[in-house]
Amino acid sequence: MERLAKIVERLESDDIELEEALAAFEEGVKLSKECAVSLTAAEKKIEILMKDASGEARLESFDPGLDDEDLGDED
User: Fold this and answer.
1) Which whole-number Å values give the CA distances from 11 to 17, 34, 44, in the listed order?
2) How many angstroms separate the CA atoms of 11 and 75, rounded?
3) Residues in contact with 24: Cβ distance below 8 Å, sequence separation at least 6, in sequence order
4) Per-residue pLDDT of the chain (75 residues; tens, 9 = 90+)
5) For the chain, what are the domain ranges?
6) Looking at the DSSP assignment, which residues form a beta bridge with residue 6?
7) Which of 6, 38, 44, 49 lies 20 to 30 Å from 27, alpha-carbon distance?
8) Which of 72, 71, 75 shows the shortest CA–CA distance to 61?
9) Contacts of 19 (CB under 8 A, 6+ apart)
10) Do the Cβ atoms of 13 and 23 come closer than 8 Å?
């Protein structure tokens, strides 16, 4: 993601040559696709982990501000 952000920043600058811009854009598209694949894989893992004993997916709200103590996990 960091590299992708740098590519976007570079593409937004006024002093980039066309060939360099095309190469950066191509790299950015590739990185974006890789991120999408990683995100999809992570979502599938979470979906599997969130299934109950009967195999039914259960939905729970997500609060990114909670830490392990808030969740009752003392490990």
Assistant:
1) 10, 19, 33
2) 45
3) 7, 10, 11, 16
4) 899 999 999 999 989 999 999 999 999 999 999 999 999 999 888 888 877 777 777 766 666 665 555 544 444
5) 2-49
6) none
7) 44
8) 71
9) none
10) no
